[in-house]
């Protein structure tokens, strides 16, 4: 016999009875009786009783899902009215006419309030701020900044290009005849005078120095194309990344790969020598040097190109420690990257990375700690370095016991200075004090506030200014934290993190394949795709970091960035060699990111458009709607199967069945509005000789219906939509903080939305507000964050 004392016992009873062959309707009734108590069935709401009898067999007592295609949790964001209509038309699956009329409304009301609606989901499974580990990106940034804090800061500035020096000598450093800033390194010449004024026709050399700016994290392929001699250094001055000083003249293209962290500057140097050894420079009949020299790169997800001036700086920079240890992929199951799962692979990666850093620090100890010929002074400097290293890794000063454990004990037991420092670094980088972030701690002190702020905006440790503010206890007020956030927003690391966010918001991270059929789009090659990606990035940078960082401009702008190659393909009037520049859109329907040609190409098939992919992207990304995965694999009907039908007609026909309509009634009308843009994002009026029908619509969570005539109507709606703005803020919060926004309060999404509106949808302002909100959570100043005015709302 079973005795049911609680719901878990009741569920076990049902499982036992089901194994004995009892029907689901009977079992659901038994479970309802057990959960409500004797005689409670009569007191239950009608909708609850009907659900238990006719729905729980598939969807579970609490909507948790039971079997087959109904195994996932019953939740979503349909309005109550739409949910009722759906139940009336399609449920139960085996007999859709069984629950209709008032019963369908009652079941919908019960399901909606009990576990379906976002409010019910938040109530039943409340979010919380969790202790989290460093992600791979955070680990790399943190280690790089801890080490960089012991070096002179790299020069910054808006100057672009490389500092160039030219010499009438076989090697750079001899008779210098010219010095200037070159926007990029790209030459074809017959004689040195064509490279720089005053150079000999034979026997000259050159040197370019400055910094390489990496826009994103990943592996970069550096390429030097020349028929002469050269050496290239990137992020180091000792060993060249590519050494082509003495190679065969027939070997004209040289490549090497290097992993770089985005949002940082790396020292770069290129030495060049003309290969005309044996030629008498004083001989008037000596032939002039003929040659070429290109400094190129292949960025992640791009094609090879001459490095543009925007990624070069004539100012030097310090070497950056870039951890090369591979890390396992991060958990993105909740829609954003977070560090809450621990695995053996991650532990192994952090251990290997700590060893890598320890070896680097030991090899560069004189540079980092300061050199000295006196052994006692060298020991003192190394010990002082070790204390500061641990403090900066832990983001707070050490107490006496911690210093004894992490530093003093290592120096007293190690056989030599280098071993002691290695042990300190290994111990510090293996400690939970470095590896974990506690955004949920109660009553955080100034150092924890500083840590939250720096990891929200930079994915890294506090810098010197933030450390000093924390040491002085100056982060106890909302105003002080906001001032720091304002300062930190205008930093290359923040720009890098926002670049990642926009690719996530537009769902481009894992959907970057825009390749097309060679037969249908023969000229749409990798170079065009690379240009389109850069076009989108330039547009996003222009809006976010320009004079008008208004969220609405992301949707309604009628401008985009085009170069000569894109102009020829998309019908703009620009020279073939035109660099990227801002131009007016080619059609009134072309608006912002909504119909940017790269987005249109990514969310399309290789030969036709895909209203489904485009609609899903709009619903999930820009409108923040929850969509279930399809119950079974979806294969679109090929165009040649129904040559008389347009894409819109084929999609409408294929998604008409009951299993599709609940989601596609939302997806399709959104995707149809973009049908005027073909699979490569070009505007079109017709398909297969038929005029394009771009009408569509959107049913709000409240059940109201918005109708659109075309893509420009859609873009105008998204620019002013409260749902779109709230979805943007929610996703931005998750990307920056890597914690659930409702973990800071059930009303926090609405509060942050109000702050966004108060600042006229200023993107940089809401970034700072999000970082400050997360930093101040649990402090006495938390309640002041909304009441206090922004210290610099015009930034």
List the helices and strands and how they pair.
Blueprint: H1 7-19, H2 24-36, H3 46-54, H4 56-59, H5 80-90, H6 101-116, H7 118-124, E1 131-133, H8 136-148, E2 162-167, E3 176-182, E4 186-190, E5 205-214, E6 218-226, E7 229-234, E8 242-244, E9 253-260, E10 264-273, E11 290-298, E12 305-306, E13 312-313, H9 344-363, H10 365-369, H11 375-394, H12 400-413, H13 417-429, H14 432-435, E14 436-438, H15 446-458, H16 464-471, H17 478-489, H18 492-505, H19 526-545, H20 553-556, E15 559-562, H21 564-570, E16 581-584, H22 597-602, H23 611-622, H24 647-654, H25 658-672, E17 686-687, E18 690-691, E19 696-699, E20 705-708, H26 711-720, H27 722-737, H28 748-758, H29 763-776
Helix pairs in contact: 1-2, 2-3, 3-6, 5-6, 6-7, 9-13, 11-12, 11-13, 12-13, 15-16, 15-17, 15-29, 17-29, 23-25, 27-28, 27-29
Write structural notes for this entry.
With 795 residues, this protein is an alpha+beta fold. 42% of the residues lie in helices and 13% in strands. The chain is built from 29 helices and 20 strands. The strands form 6 sheets. Strands 2, 3, 5, 7, 8, 10 and 13 form a 7-stranded antiparallel sheet that branches. A hairpin with a 5-residue loop joins strand 19 and strand 20. Helix 5 packs across helix 6. The N and C termini lie far apart (71 Å). The N terminus and C terminus are likely disordered.
